[in-house]
Amino acid sequence: MTATQESLGAPRGFDAFDASCPSRRLLDAIGDKWVSLVVVALGLRGPLRYSQLSAQIAGVSQKMLTQTLRGMERDGLLLRTVTPSVPVRVDYELTPLGASLLDVLRHVKEWAEAHMGEVDAARAAYDARPPAS
Amino acid sequence: MTATQESLGAPRGFDAFDASCPSRRLLDAIGDKWVSLVVVALGLRGPLRYSQLSAQIAGVSQKMLTQTLRGMERDGLLLRTVTPSVPVRVDYELTPLGASLLDVLRHVKEWAEAHMGEVDAARAAYDARPPAS
DNA sequence: CTGTATCCTGTTAGATACTG
DNA sequence: CAGTATCTAACAGGATACAG
After folding, report:
1. How do residues B78-110 score in pLDDT, each as one tens digit?
2. I need a surface site. Which of A82, B12, B27, B51 has the fewest CB within 10 A?
3. Which residues form the HTH hxlR-type domain (chains A, B) (predicted)?
4. What is the pLDDT of residue B29?
5. In terms of C-beta density within 10 A (0-12 exposed, 13-18 middle, 19 or more buried), how is residue B102 classed?
6. Which residues are CB-neighbours of B63 under 8 A, at least 6 positions away?
7. Is residue A101 within 8 Å of A39, Cβ to Cβ?
8. Angle (CA) A46 B27 B120, round 5°
């Protein structure tokens, strides 16, 4: 395992092969279905309340939404504001850091728009080819 | 659920909230631990044989490596070349499409290098704060 | 309204053993 | 060498019920 770190690892302090490396944690973040959805939702619609997010993302369970929100808050991706009114009110908004993550997602979006057709074509071709000789 | 697609969905034909949308499939792709590792490995070291990949990525099981490789081949991300020598030899190399995915990963890398310190700081601050009043 | 706690199920991935 | 097949353990995630 150490061999991997040395042979392929961090040419300049960056090693995606090391699970503890920041890059891996970021991949975990943007790779997470709900995280990316929350980032996009907040990025597109500005600050939202818990119930609004719940409605927007429709399909997310309370458990996953809360869990995702907590994790993102912990990572400094969003700000959680509690207003102690009679029925409690909680607003969530992207921090500048969270907004910058939205930019990364935008790059992903661009790649998808530019190349996803190729992927579909490749997939169709692969599935159509004879099941080996 | 349909409400979500309409309210937040594809302002211009792109809807990350739709699981069948290309963007989601891409997220699934780059979010996958092993896919990103294989892309980086092949991108950094050029064509590699199965056994070399297995060694490079150290920690991946045969099952996951094969599964990942098959999926990537299907998606047109890499090319699989079988040389029917006495002991069979199989080489894997990135296609132009796969190489372009490496570029996306590069953006991710840059974001990580630029902001991951902030994430760590936020996390430390969050973990250090009192467990609520 | 905004969560927390619990149970329960499906998927996933690692280990292991075997084949062309 | 380069896989395939099978079994099982771990865990993520959904449903549900309840609380501040």
Report:
1. 999 999 999 999 999 999 999 999 999 888 888
2. B12
3. 21-120
4. 82
5. middle
6. none
7. yes
8. 65
Q: SS3 of A131, please?
A: coil
Hey, of B119, B120, B126, B127, which one would you mutate to test binding to chain A, going by the most A CBs within 10 A of its CB? B119
Report helix angle B33-45 to B62-74, nearest 10: 80
Give B80's strand partners: B92
Q: What is the pTM of this model?
A: 0.86
CA B31 – CA B33 distance, rounded (Å): 6
- Asked if A116 and B27 count as a contact pair (C-beta separation under 8 A), the reply is no
Tokens of A126: 């692969």
Judge contact between A34 and A45, C-beta under 8 A.
no
| Mean pLDDT value across residues B57-69 | 94
Tell me, in Å, how far CA of A69 is from C1' of D16?
21
Residue nearest to nucleotide D4 (CA to C1'): B63
Task: Tell me if A7 and B56 make a contact (CB, 8 A cut-off).
Answer: yes
The C-alpha atoms of residue B78 and residue B85 are separated, in whole angstroms, by 21
CA-to-CA distance for A122 and A34, rounded, in angstroms?
A: 28
Residues 6+ apart with CB under 8 A from B121: A76
The structural domains of chain B, ordered by start, are 20-127 (1.10.10.10)
Instruction: Please choose, from the candidates A97, A57, A54, the residue with its C-alpha nearest in 3D space to the C-alpha of residue A74.
Output: A97
A58 pLDDT above the threshold of 50: yes
User: Are A58 and B123 within 8 A, CB to CB?
Assistant: no
Specify the residue for token string 């090693």. A15
* Pair A39, A77: CB distance under 8 Å: yes
Q: Is A31 on the interface with B (CB under 8 A)?
A: yes
A78-83 and B48-49 as β-strands: parallel, antiparallel, unpaired? Answer: unpaired
